[in-house]
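Input:
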Amino acid sequence: MKTVFPFTAIVGQEEMTDALVIAAIEPRLSGVLIFGDRGTGKSTAVRALAALLPDISAVTGCAYGCDPADTSALCDACREKLTHGKLPISKTKIPVVDLPLGATEDRVVGALNLERALADGTKMFEPGLLARAHRGFLYIDEVNLLEDHIVDLLLDVAASGENLVEREGMSLKHPARFVLIGSGNPEEGELRPQLLDRFGLCVEVRTPTDIAARIEVVRRRDDFDRDPAAFTARFAPAEKKLRKRITDAKARLPHITVADEILTQAAKLCMALGTDGLRGELTLLRAARALAAFEAAHEVTPDHLRRMTAPALRHRLRRDPLDDSLASTRVDRVVAEVFAA
Ligand SMILES: [Zn+2]
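Output:
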C-alpha cells in the first residue's frame, strides 16, 4: 500500500487542517468546502487525515463496510446475516473516495449489474461510489465544475446518511454516511448559493507567501518522496498524539455544554452578517462545540465561537450591493463588533 504523507507534517494551512479535524470530530457538520489555488495540498490533507484516524471495525465481505456496532444502520444483506448469528468482523482503513469530474449518476449511486441481468436475468445491484465512501471521506476535486444535479444528490445523501436507489425496477437503500469534502477554485466557475450553503464549513487555502514556510513545504515534500518510511517514522509520535486528541474529542463531544450567552452571541453574529435561515447558526454552534471538545474544554467559550465564525459563515453571506468587500473581510469586521460589545 502507498505511504501517505503524514497529516501533522503539513506546513501552515491551519484553517484547512483545523476544519478537517473539526469535521472528523463532528460528522453532522455536513462537510467542508475548500477554496484555493491548485497545488496547495487539499487532496493530500484529506488522505492524510483519513490515514491518521483509527481503523474501523466493519462487517467482513460487506460491500458497504457496515458498522457491526450500529445494527440500526445495516445494509439488507448484513441485517439478513444477523438473523442467522453473529456478524464476522474485520478491521479496515477509513476509506477516501475520489469523485471524478464527469462521473455519471450510475457510477455515483450504483446501478443494476447489466452483465448479470443479461446473462441469467438476476437483478443484482452494483454499488457505486457512495457505497465505497460509507464511513469515510468523499472527495470532490473542482466541485464547482460538477453538474448541479450530482452535487444536489451528494448533499442529499450526505445529509440523510442513506442512499436510496429507485430505478430499473430496483428499489433498495443502503447506509452512506461520509464526510463530504469539496475543493474548488473560485476563478473556475461559481457554485450556486443554494449549494454553497449546504456545506458546513468553508475554508480558504493559499500558496504560502512567506519564504521560510515555502522552503519548509518543499523540504518536507522532498524528504518524504526520497524516503517515505523514515519521514513517516519521524512524524509517528505527533500522529499518535493527534489521533488520541481526536478520539478523546469524539468521546467528549456529547458532554460539552453551551451557555445561553453563547447562543445569543451566535445569533447576533448571524443577524449582523445577514445569513439566511438558521443553518448557519446551527453549524456555527456545532463547529464551536467540536472545537471545544478538541481543546479538552468542558463548555463552549466565546473564543471557540469567534474562531469558528469565518469557516461556518463566510459562504452564507448575502451579497450586499453597498458592500462588495470580500466575505472574509466582512466576517472579520462583524466578529470584531459583536465580540467588542
Ligand atoms: Zn452491510
